[in-house]
Every structure is written in C-alpha cells, then in structure tokens.
Please model this.
Amino acid sequence: MKSKLPCFFHEGQLEFHPKFEWALGNRIKHPETTRRAESIFRELRKNKDLFDIIEPTRIPLKAIRDSHAYQLMSLYNTASTLDDGETFYPSVFPQRKNANPDPTNIKHAGFYCFDSGTPLDNKTWIAAAWSAGSAYYAADEVGKERSRVSYALSRPPGHHASKDAYGGYCYFNNAAIAAKLLKKKGRVAIVDIDFHHGNGTQEIFYGDDKVLTISVHGDPRLHFPYFCGFPNELGKGKGEGYNLNIILKDKTKINSYLKTLKEIVVPALKKFEPDYLIIAAGFDTYKLDPIGNFDLEVEDYIKIAQVFKKLKLPTVILQEGGYYTKDLGKNVVSFLKGFC
Ligand SMILES: [Zn+2]
Model:
C-alpha cells in the first residue's frame, strides 16, 4: 500500500472550454471552466507530502460502454467534427416517444441532452474521456489494492449524465464507470454529496441491488435537476430499496449536515455492507458557491471526510461540482486531508 493518496488527472481534461450557458433564458458565463481543475491541481501540488499526482492512461472504450449507450459516444464523435471555436447548443428537445434520432447529425443533440447549459464542441469528447479515465484508474487503484483510498480530479463532472443522455455539465458518468469496474469484485455504495441530486447515477443503477446509490442534496423543487431527487424514488425491481435521496434545506450548516450523515447515511451504508465506497464529491455545498445554496466552510469538509473514513472501507473519491473557483482547491484538499 502506498503512503501518499494517489490523485488521478490528465491535462487532456483541460482541452474543453465551454464559454457560456443558457440559464432560465439568460446567457451567462459558463461556470464549469478549466480554472476549477487548475485550482484543485495547484492545491494538490502544494501538499506533495500527502498527494501523489498520477496521469491515467487511456480508458478502455468498453469501460465507457458498460455505463453508456453507443449513440451518446457517437454524438460526441459527431461533435468532434465541429470547427474550432464552434459550439453546439441544442434548442429542440423532442419528447422521446415522438423522435427518430440520428447521433451522426449534430442537430439531433437535443434528443440526447436534457438542458441548455451543457454545450458540445470538438474537444468535449477528449476532455470527457480523460475525465472518465481518471475516475476509472482511481477505481482500479483501489480495486487492485495498491491504495486504500484514491481521488480522481474528474473534470468535466459526471453525476448528471445517464446511460443515454448528457446535461448538468456532465457527459460521461464517472461514478458509474468507477462503480461498474469495482462491481466485478464486490458490492459498491455510491454516496453523492454534491449540492445537486445525482440523477444520472440514480438512473443507471435504479434496478440494481449490488450498487447502493445515496444522494444528499438541495431541494430539487428549487434547484437543478428539478424533476427528480425526491425521497419516494427508491429504486425498481430488484433494485427497490437500493436508492436513497435525502433533501436538506437551503443554508444547511455543518452540524445538521453531519447529523444527516451519521443518522441516515452511515446506518444505510452499514446495513448494505459494501465492499467499496465511492464518494461523488461536489463542493458546490460551499457557502460562497454561486450555484449551490448550503452554508459549509472550508474546514467543514475534513469533518465530513472523517465520517466516511471511520467506515474503514476501500474508498474512491471522485470530483463532481464546485464553482467558487478561488476556494475550490482548498475545499478539496480539506476533504482529502480527512482521509490522510
Ligand atoms: Zn452540483
């Protein structure tokens, strides 16, 4: 076992530069910038005694296919033929039952997309595949028992991407890709602590009793993704009882956050008895985040990490959201220190 915490990141993840998004009719600067990853990378580098930064090799396409429909990959491949500087935002989102989609036609992107904030350009596929690769090799590191805990600086994030749809700044579901790899060896629990409901991860494992999905998030009636993330979504078929959604109020502070983890999340994890834990770690729960609406401080993240560390499970931590770039790296390092 290695003494330093391995952190996976590839600079190919920085090739994608979404410039703006359409948010409730307004054109705003895109929050999911490369500065996010750079902020985290800088803080990891400052703590060389604790963290080892590792460049992943290419992810096997099969590992992406285990979680995603080939049409989604085909669409990203179509986007890779766009001109430099050209960005595609779908403006038609057909109801699926009425559509005849063609992923080789970029105009059909709206069939595979569920919002107007997640653009495609000719580098989307490269950055998303390297991000998935960072998650995949972080899981492989733990699965092969080289490390007890690993971290992937997975940018772009992943938890809103479902089997055949992208959105919420997410293109491939990094947590699902990591979970499918570890599922070959045992039972996997995914705990999503991003401010937003992990709708894509929920959907991918909704009928699965070998992967427990838990998401702790802001009220979906008020916040993205709006249509799901409610407590009555429990899973279906043999997956029934293996999906848990916990809604916290706006402005939640650390005491009630920890109470929820200790009284609801930890008992659910102990009951499930996972062999592996994946934490989809978003930091848009930070008090200054422009998108999230909780009230957590930098030093709170170490306390959250310590709750998970006490479970003594092989753990893979994946980067999700977090848009207050200035402090994002500090928040991530605070969290990771809880595992050191
Ligand atoms: Zn988020």
